[in-house]
Amino acid sequence: MDSNTIVEIAEYHNDVVASLKYYSKTSPSFISTRYFGRPLGDVLAARIEETDLRSAFFVLTALEAAFRIDYLYRCQKKMKDDLSRAFRLIYKDRGKNATLDEDIFGTWKRESSAPGPRLIEDLRGAFNFRHYLAHGRYWEPKLARKYDFNFAYSLADDVLNAFPLLKFD
Amino acid sequence: MRLKAPSAKGERSAPVDVKEFDEFVKREREDAAETASVDWDGERKEWLSYLDKLYKKVESLLHKYVSSGQIQLGYRSVELNEENIGSYAAKQMVLKIGPKSVVLEPIGTLLLGSKGRVDVIGPAGKAQILLVDSKRSGPTPLVHVSIGFGGKLPVPPAEPPREIKWEWRIVTRPPERRFIEITQQSLFQLIMEVANG
User: Fold this and answer.
1) Which chain A residues in 64-103 lie under 8 Å from chain B, judged by CB atoms?
2) Terminal CA-to-CA distance of chain B, rounded, Å?
3) Cβ of A117 under 8 Å from any chain B Cβ?
4) CA pair distance B72, B69, nearest whole angstrom
5) Nearest CA to A145 among B49, B34, B116, B138?
6) A147: Cβ–Cβ under 8 A, 6 or more apart, which residues?
7) Structural contact between residues B75 and B93, judged by C-beta atoms closer than 8 angstroms
8) By three-state DSSP, how is residue B108 classified?
9) pLDDT bracket for residue B34 (50, 70, 90)
10) H or E element at residue B188
11) Angle CA(B145)–CA(B147)–CA(A79) in degrees, nearest 5?
12) Which of A2, B27, B47, B79 could form a disulfide with B109 if both were Cys (CB 3.0 to 4.6 A apart)?
């Protein structure tokens, strides 16, 4: 996983939003039968909002994959830095099933210069949101801020640029 | 909280030693001290003052349309809640253009890479306005995370201190995310994009 993955998600997102806008103006079925009685603008806004949430979800799953791949790489390649050593202790217990929040983010917070109060907490908050989306949105999440595609993309872009995440060739 | 599973002998497989616990307590105290040293009330006031400046700029750029009644411009109060700052009231700008509404919704100030964010939300989408260092043309990374060896973290190269001039900038859509100045032309384009597609 590298930043190209989230770029592709963003390009796909833009194409879908543009398509929805075009479709909403040109498709008789969009305009009439399915949404009879509901203002067209509301339907388009709802579709765009749903697309926004889905794209935010995929950006966050890509970011999770980047952290998990880095964790596995550091465990398997037996690297000598403090982070890799700490990961290997976790790996002994949990193998590839390390928890993202406590095991992976927590270790990054302890063993690197990642600014805890801001960056790691932003990551934790965003992954609470991802968790809510991944599990069917059946509860009202207590989120510290508003999450959307723009936020998820900005966070992922900043994190992928800031963290020295490793990956297999 | 996930506890490590006990081994067959009834012991934890990776016991936490006193030194590790000491380090944990020290780190948490340092984080708390860092948080306590920030003037959060001052941060909130500064952000709300910049928010007012943004609204004044938008009012002035739309003056011709608002004064002639073609666009209705109003405000609503919204409650924001940010870690360390807590709950506070902020203004949200609402533009009514014919049947369509475009809202400038303040999101908050405690953000990575910017000092404030306002979302511009319309029936055909949303966009971002960020309060950023005026010298930046895009979201260059503000932090570089390094990893320690032997319990010591490398010291990052110190940047010479300089005074940051904060300016509101429209952010183009991801993946590009370029910062562009708020002018009449860029504002009109932004409003049309979120209102009309």
Assistant:
1) 80-84, 89, 92-93, 99, 102-103
2) 46
3) yes
4) 6
5) B116
6) A56, A125, A126, A129
7) yes
8) strand
9) low
10) helix B184-196
11) 135
12) B47
Q: B84 — alpha (psi -120 to 50), left (phi > 0) or beta?
A: left
Specify the pLDDT at position A7. 96
b/e for A13-28, b at 16 or more Cβ within 10 A?
beebbeebbeebeeee
Q: Look at B181 and B36; give whichever has higher pLDDT.
A: B181
> Quick one: pLDDT at residue B179?
94
Whether residues A92 and B100 touch (CB distance < 8 A) is answered with: no
Give the separation between CA A116 and CA B105, rounded to whole angstroms: 27
| Inter-chain residue contact A155 with B112, CB threshold 8 Å | yes
DSSP A29-57: HHHTGGGTTS-HHHHHHHHHHHHHHHHHH
pLDDT band at residue B11 using 50, 70 and 90 as cut-offs: very low
Complex ipTM value: 0.78
Could you write out the DSSP letters of every residue in B13-67? SSPPPHHHHHHHHHHHHHHHHHHHTS-HHHHHHHHHHHHHHHHHHHHHHTHHHHH
Answer whether A125's CB lies under 8 Å from A144's CB.
yes
